Amino acid sequence: MMKKPITRRKVLKGMAGTTALSAGTLGFPAILKASDTVKIGFLTALTGLETILGETQQRCFEIAVDDINAAGGAGGRELTYIVEDDQTTTKGAIDKARKLIGQDKVDVIVGMIASLERQAALSVTSPARQLLIYTTYYEGNECDKYLVCTGQIPNQQIDPMVPWVTNNLGKSVYVMGSDYVWPRGSTEQLKAALEANGGTLVGADFFPFGTQDFGPAFSKIKSAAPDIVWFMFAGSDAITSVKQYRSFDMKPELIYHGWDEAFLPAVTPGEQAGIIASQAYFQQLDNPVNNAFVKRFADKYGADKPINAIGEATYAATWLYAKAVAKAGSTDPEKVIPALSQVEHEAPQGHVNISAENNHMLCNSILARVTDNASFEIVENYGQIEPYIEGCKLA
After folding, report:
1. β 350-353/344-347 pair status
2. I want to staple 348 with a disulfide (CB 3.0 to 4.6 A). Which of 49, 224, 272, 293 is the partner?
3. Is the pLDDT reported for residue 215 higher than 90?
4. How far apart are the C-alpha atoms of 17 and 25, rounded to whole Å?
5. Under 8 Å CB-to-CB from 281, ≥6 apart: which residues?
6. CA of residue 346 relative to chain centroid, distance
7. Residues 230-289: pLDDT tens digits?
8. CA–CA dist 332, 131 (Å, integer)
């Protein structure tokens, strides 16, 4: 049973032994000025549909604060934070965003999983001219000066993989997803990418959160006989859908581009073997930055706790924000926002930076397949990709 999360204010002390993140290396003052802090509001789903992802996201955020404070903070300013649970609801996101800005006076809000959380929080932060950093891949199309996104959008996550899919798995695709903006918007992007590569979207069905029986939909798909079924389910519904897909002995190849390490322990190896995923990060990436990151994470939380792309994008976002505060010499959003596109970071996924044109991160794009022993094998690594949002010209 998951422990009920509580709101908490926490000041993280530095990790003195983290030599790879020395203050000298980053050019930050070695002594943190505790009286001059940066206050971050960490807002995510710690209960509700997206709990499985929110918990991992929080752990990666905490590691980022550890590492940044160990390296001298944001230009010598110590990072502190307040955690709030939006319960994967619109009301929760609005209420907690209002609290963080109005009562707690945070300098920035970071986190969130579902698009409904982002849209709700943004309805509070944007009119208040406060910075919101969203760290989950999503359907794209947001263009707001006060919103920065560090997760992939479809031209970084879906478009790169579609040529491989149509060349190796088949050309006809049937989508099943949760009934909200991320799956619906992503399906439109997928349809365009398929058509550009000689493929076809033969059908799409969307389901309410918490659906327990996908049997009628699977029967419908068997009649349509697509080459591929493409899942876009949110949170725990992803687990239910994958389990039932295998129990109904479905034959089409299964793609769930959002399948990640947080889901691996939730179903049996046989139920998930062969799933194709597309993310900016996989925990097995073999590079010095990621290897050190994985070790620190395991030392703090245990080697059995997963790291996924949403968590890693939160880690990267926190670093980029801290560097922007250092560059701007201020936490004023009007100064930090332009500075965000002038800094860069070597993250576990690879090199990352923010586009001044649309305030989205130049994410990496990696295609992977789940093996028979419930791990990921990387099939293609497309590297860093420029984010594209039609008509968005913020700078």
Report:
1. antiparallel
2. 293
3. yes
4. 14
5. 290, 307, 308, 309, 312, 313, 348, 349, 364, 366
6. 17
7. 999 998 999 999 999 999 989 999 999 999 999 999 999 999 999 999 999 999 999 999
8. 9
Amino acid at 39: K
Count other C-beta atoms under 10 Å from residue 393's C-beta: 9
DSSP conformation letters of 376-391: EEEEEEEEEE----TT
Taking the model in full, what pTM does it have? 0.91
Which residue's structure tokens are 């959008």? Answer: 153
Cα–Cα distances (Å) from 285 to 294, 310, 330, in that order, read 10, 15, 34
Check the CA dihedral 100-105-106-108 and report its sign.
positive
**Does residue 226 sit in helix, strand or coil?**
coil
| Cα separation, 248 vs 266, whole angstroms | 18
Give me the DSSP letters along 157-218: HTTTTHHHHHHHT-SEEEEEEESSHHHHHHHHHHHHHHHHTT-EEEEEEEE-TT----HHHH
What's residue 25's pLDDT?
36
By three-state DSSP, how is residue 11 classified? strand
